[in-house]
Design goal:
Elements: E1 6-11, H1 22-36, E2 40-43, E3 51-52, H2 60-74, E4 78-82, E5 87-88, E6 101-103, E7 105-110, E8 113-118, H3 128-137, H4 140-148, H5 151-168, H6 178-190, E9 195-198, E10 205-209, E11 212-216, H7 220-223, E12 226-230, E13 235-238, H8 253-263
Parallel strand pairs: 1-2, 2-4, 3-5, 4-6, 8-9, 9-11
Antiparallel strand pairs: 1-12, 7-8, 10-11, 12-13
The structure holds manganese (II) ion.
């Protein structure tokens, strides 16, 4: 049997700091990721309840969580932060010790397959109030304000914003915008992308056209899902319950599991 080497891990929507004891769960998940010794760890948006790039906004949970990212880097993994709707100014220098790259999109080639990863918060085209809020909150003036406001006031505003977000902008609580997702997938496929991964919607969803595929990675906060990507471009997700993200190609989950041990 041909073993394949897992080289990337993808986790979406962790929201660490939102639920009781989720920091401990996150630390355990990161220990497992470190054990697999992957080349790159990609957070597909919304690692924390909220993350602003400037350290004056970080509470104890964020600081502890970020230390885990620094640990991943010390262990030799690249850490990529894809910007979610709860993430702001991830290019700020304060985050330099904790991530290798940050941006609204991440792409790479594995096994001749072109991957494109983005959070997905702009896919629902009918969600106009969110799109407006996003444009304002991530604007130049907002960045200046984030840098200049007194620390306590700034933190209070972030928490207030988070509460507001929870009330109005949890689009994932509504139906998946399947038509918008399919249209976005088709656009990426037409541009030459083979595999699209989104987060944001928290619930699994998949769409396949021939050998091309698009998946919504289930939210880590509810499902504990990690998607593992091999050097050959194969995908599998852990736990098995999110099997939508497992490739239809002839490599089973169990072969993949054996692959892990053989590869080590
Ligand atoms: Mn999100």
């Amino acid at each position: 049997m041909l073993a394949w080497l897992v080289t990337r891990a993808v986790l979406a929507d962790l929201h660490v700091g939102q639920a009781k004891d989720d920091l401990e769960k996150f630390l355990a998940a990161m220990a497992e990721v470190r054990r697999r010794d992957v080349r790159e760890v990609i957070f597909l948006g919304d690692v924390f309840r909220a993350l602003v790039g400037y350290s004056r906004f970080w509470d104890a949970t964020v600081r502890r969580g970020l230390e885990e990212l620094a640990d991943l880097r010390r262990a030799g993994s690249r850490v990529v932060l894809v910007e979610g709707n709860r993430d702001f100014f991830l290019d700020a220098a304060d985050l330099d010790p904790y991530r290798d790259a940050a941006g609204t999109v991440h792409s790479f080639v594995a096994g001749n397959r072109r991957f494109l990863l983005e959070h997905g918060d702009l896919i629902n085209r009918s969600d106009r109030s969110y799109r407006f809020w996003r444009a304002i909150s991530k604007s130049g003036p907002a960045r200046l304000w984030a840098r200049l406001l007194p620390r306590r006031l700034a933190q209070r505003i972030v928490l207030g914003t988070e509460t507001r977000l929870a009330q109005t902008n949890f689009t994932y609580r509504r139906d998946l915008p399947a038509a918008d997702l399919e249209a976005a997938a088709q656009r990426h496929f037409a541009a030459g992308v083979d595999v699209v991964l989104w987060g944001h919607f928290h619930r699994p969803w998949s769409f396949t056209v021939g050998s091309k595929q698009a998946h919504v990675v289930p939210g880590w906060m509810e499902s504990g899902t990690v998607v593992w990507i091999g050097d050959n471009g194969m995908l599998l997700s852990d736990p098995e319950s999110s099997e939508q993200v497992v490739d239809s190609a002839p490599v089973s989950w169990y072969q993949g599991r054996e692959g892990f041990s053989e590869a080590r």
